[in-house]
Amino acid sequence: MRPRKLLRIARWEVTKNAGGIDRRTVGIALVALALFGLVVPFIISGDTGLDDGLYRVSVDEESPYYDVVDSEGAFVIREGGERAVSRSEVELYIGDGEIVYAESRKGIAAYGQLQSAVSRYNNRQLRQELNQTAAFPVSVVLEYRQQSALGDGLRLGGDSGGTDDSDDEDGSTGQTDGSDGGESGESDGSEAGDTSTDQPDDGEPDGPATDRETTTDTGGSGGPIGGFGASFTEDSISGSPSDINPPFPFQSLVLAFLVIIPMNFLIQAYGSTILSERTNRRGELLLVSPVSRFDIIGGKTLPYFVGGMAVEVAIIAGLFVLVNGQLGGPVSVLAVMPLVLLFLGATFLGAMFARSFKELTFVTVTITVTLTSYAFVPAIFTDVGAVALISPLTLLVRELQGEAISLAEFVFSTTPPLLCAGVFFGLGAGLYREEDMFDQRSLRGRVLDALVGPIPVRGKPGGFTARLNGLLPVDVTPLRQYLAVGGLTAALIPFVFVVQLLAIALLFALGEISVVLILVVVAVVEELAKSLHIYAGYTHRRFASGRRRAVLLGVASGVGFFLGEKIALLAQLVGLPDLAVGEAGLQGGIIPGPPVLTVLLFLLAPLALHVVTAGISAVGASRSKRAYVVAVGTAMLVHLAYNLTVVVSVV
Amino acid sequence: MIAAQDLRKEYGEFVAVEGSTFSVEEGEVFGIVGPNGAGKTTTLKMLAGLLDPTAGTAQVAGYDTSETEMRKHLGFLPEESPLYEEMTATSYLRFFADLYDVPDGVAETRITETLDKLDLEHRERQLGDMSKGMKRKVAITRSLVNDPDVLIYDEPASGLDPLTTNYIIQFTEELAAEGKTIVFSAHNLFHVESICDRVAIMNDGEIVARGDLDELQQAHGETTYHVYTTVEVADSVRENGRYRRTVESMSEVEETRTLAQEADGEVVDIRTEESSLEEVFLNVADPGSRSEG
Questions:
Q1: ipTM for this model
Q2: Which pTM was predicted?
């Protein structure tokens, strides 16, 4: 790859497309961007003001309800007495000892709103009381703990806070801030297990602690995201137990979505430019010029990557300014980078598969849904546990909350999508040549084309294998094919890993059945990853026939997978296997502790499994499509049986 | 300058080119003709390095066609060359000149001179707004921005009006006169005949005949003799007061002479007519049609 050529192509890509956009379109885009920027703060704060002045209320200034109504945005005060209600001039009339509401849906809704407003008003008043013990005679410490196994759900501090070891170690149980209840939005909602969550900013408890309990919503609805966080949490500070919410980080989701939104626009433009090279053979002349396909792909991708990152940096900077009042987020920027590459990589491969812009639309929608799920769903559990770290967006949310992020967590979150993006670009680059770019083969055919790309061709002149064969007395083609098959299997591991992580994130809340479902996903995905390229090789007549050759290809694939899956060691860095579902999904790559015999057993057993199942699939692939389907199905069943045995005996 | 040895290209079960061997000397214009699907374009693309041969080797300007360096010495014009229609002609050509590492000043001069020769106006117009002929001229200019030693032109005048076609064929002749080595494919055999030094005829993926026009005519063509007599003989037709009998061998010419003498007449003129490339092509590519015809 030559940087000068790559940059020239990148510059051309920008100017070429710039020529096709008129000033009006640019203007509209800028206005849309400006509007988006204006709306973001309201989205984050949740204060969209949609119900401002929705209900008209007649209330006397001397009434104790006046302040309630006046402080509620949904109400607007109007002149008029009780008759104003009958004349439909107001929805509510609050008189001396009576409240009259219009006999309409709006009137009833206005009355309900008033009840809520009164409750909120009272809570605010109570929080301002000097004697908080009197204001809140019953206090409950609500503590969310990380899941350690299935069914280990959320616990209330009432039955564990006083006895939990961590409380003792911390020494801060009951050091709750009786007077600071209203500021729990500043408490660290995400530090599950930290019972000193209600300390004031100076770290000193400012109220009596041991003789009472304070209702504290730790980790409730978003944690300490400045003033915005407070707006979400303050209403659940006091009230009935039904007001206690599970740790559902609404804000985290909103923030995560803000980062993902631009990606969905970016991939539309990027997919179009890649596909436009393929329509009407437009890209043929670039292929015949003295640049490599990697220069072309790199040059065409660079502007979209740089543009995407620029937008992401702007959004992240904006979020930090809005939420924390200062610039920041270097870790977030680095965390989002693999995600941008993953979107682009998947789109590149998809655009190499699509035969028309109609198909490209289907591809980009699929990518949007899948990758948004991958990035978004785990982030829901930011305040729950390690499972959230599957998504790099979790790092963003956590940095935004001021939490420290360890190197291990960063590596765990970002490596799989980064490697996956590399796999996507690699497979797509294999198709970026004349005979694959411009044909109209089916999606299935193109997938097989992409997979077979790295496998050397028997007897191909001029290639590396041919040169080696010229130097050596033996034909090295089979050896190179075994290496290519094993290497390709290993290269697909990040993709397998990401699918498994996504399955864990999607299924872990389903209870015990999720373990079985994840094991099924694991067996299906891993067996396909080990055998699909072998099948592709046979369909493209890359391999010599014969059962022995097929078995050896299976062995190569099995060994490649075994070595490659050690990437799952990453999971150990952040403790994901502590989850039962995590262990079920990632068992192949996790090395248990001693003794040595056990270690060997756990090393060799997965190796044997992968070699045997890949061998079964390879033998099927060497015969026919139907035989391959039967063989890979058998391999999946063997794999599932093995996984179930391991889980039953170990978990 | 070009050497192809046993080139073979398979697409799955389909063999597009089979055992194609030929060479082209420096400064030579080599034509490849054949019916649709004969393997001409596949052969040209293998020479240009766009397609990897399944078997066999090809070298252009001393480089294997798989080498990137080879492309610096090559100007390739595909049969269809859709351009980046959002670009102007000059920006498009400058971009490709950059890719070929042509210095800006040299590129500017070369582009201007070539466009002048091709009489292309409206150079700052977007390519999407240009006519097909204008686009073809831009594509030809692009194939020359790097001043290549070898030109591979696949149907350079395909689908153009006669005027533009003539213009492009004349321009190709000028390039040949400048000493460029040209491999040229065309459906219009008159054009091939007029500018090619040697021709290969392809059919069903194989080269079925090759050589210069004389060689091809001798090997695969026919010579027709028009024998004019003063008297009517068998199979003759009256023409300008004489009788013309058309025969295909010297023995038949002698037979005609005998017939005329027997009828108290004589042979007054014999004219020879060689097969055109088109007829040679039809003989080679589809011998059945000739015999049936």
A1: 0.81
A2: 0.73
